[in-house]
From TrEMBL:
This is ORC1/DEAH AAA+ ATPase domain-containing protein. GO terms for molecular function: ATP hydrolysis activity; DNA binding. Pfam families: AAA_22 (PF13401). Residues 111-238 form the ORC1/DEAH AAA+ ATPase domain.
Length: 332
């Protein structure tokens, strides 16, 4: 015989303390990650309706036993903890671009500075900054409570308000994203009160005056977090065009060099290391030529090697070689 609603409520009452603890844990996790109920439900193979009933304390509408759902929630949170990024991507070649970004990254962090660097699309900004973020966090992760931390934040074009940019920053840090910009700012200042922290804001040319002024609060007030802005040449134009309004920024900001892009010699070294020393010089020259891009935003016309194009071309050649090898083995 099917259980009545009252019977289900009585059965669920026995696990109420455990259910309340899981609900609190889940709500905190959702607030800090920015995941919606529906996103989380899909990841644990439950419907969003079921999860909402559980969160609202009305699981008796669904079933008389919430143990499997509680188990799924706690296991997912344990398997996907909120923590700084510590895994770097592919191999990082020490080009001039990389050396400059590494220099500015640690200058900002160690000396508590606000620095900005700019370069054309494909000049390795994103990949290198993500790699440096993971590199630092991996080295410092064992210093629980006091280790330095780096947080990479991508700034999309849609971020046009102080609340939106602070939510992006909080989500990158695993901090509660709810509330207005000032409330999130206070949370971040409290969270990092015992640490040296650097925020890397990539595609910073998308940030308007309101966003920049809000971000300045992370630098000006305790614990005085370091800020590294990275973007296209438009970022430099923004600070020059709005110099009067951004006088507080300009008085604090250290201007880094423009990233030069990968040189022909650096590209030659990368290609030979990726494809092997037997690769012919004509193929190397062809790859370098195909990887050239035109930067019209600099004075005159400037050609540079796009790292993105270069590594895509190398990847395509590797795949072609693998296919030929597989075909040869299959026919043998």
């Amino acid at each position: 015989m099917a259980l009545s609603m009252k019977d289900r409520e009585l059965l669920l009452a026995t696990s109420l303390p455990a259910a309340n603890a899981v609900r609190e844990q889940l709500n905190e996790y959702l607030a800090r990650t920015g995941l919606a109920y529906s996103d989380f439900a899909r990841r644990i193979n439950y419907s969003s309706v079921t999860l909402r009933f559980f969160i609202k304390g009305r699981y008796a509408n669904i079933a008389s036993n919430d143990a499997p759902l509680r188990k799924a929630i706690t296991e997912f949170i344990a398997a996907h903890p909120i923590e700084p990024v510590t895994q770097a991507g592919d191999k990082l070649y020490e080009t001039e671009n990389v050396q400059l970004l590494r220099q500015y990254f640690y200058e900002a962090l160690d000396d508590c500075r606000m620095i900005y660097v700019h370069g054309a699309p494909g000049s390795q900004k994103t990949f290198v900054l993500e790699h440096l973020t993971a590199e630092l966090n991996c080295a410092e992760v064992s210093k629980n409570g006091h280790g330095r931390r780096a947080y990479y934040v991508y700034c999309p074009q849609s971020v046009k308000t102080s609340q939106k940019i602070m939510r992006e920053i909080a989500e990158a840090c695993g901090v509660d994203t709810t509330g207005d910009a000032q409330r999130i700012l206070k949370r971040l200042r409290f969270e990092f009160r015992t640490r040296k922290v650097i925020f890397i804001l990539d595609e910073a040319q998308h940030l308007n005056y309101e966003c920049l002024e809000t971000i300045r609060g992370l630098f000006d007030r305790m614990p005085h977090c370091a800020i590294l802005l990275a973007g296209s040449h438009q970022l430099e134009t923004t600070f020059m065009r709005d110099a009067a309004r951004l006088e507080q920024w300009n008085s604090r900001l250290h201007f880094g060099k423009a990233l030069p892009g990968i040189s022909d010699d650096e590209a030659d070294t990368i290609i030979r290391q990726e494809l092997g020393e037997k690769v012919t010089s004509p193929i190397v020259r062809k790859l370098i030529t195909e990887s050239k891009a035109l930067d019209v935003r600099r004075s005159g016309e400037h050609n540079y090697i796009s790292a993105r194009r270069l590594f895509w071309s190398i990847r395509d050649i590797k795949r072609a070689i693998e296919k030929r090898q597989a075909k040869k083995e299959a026919s043998a």
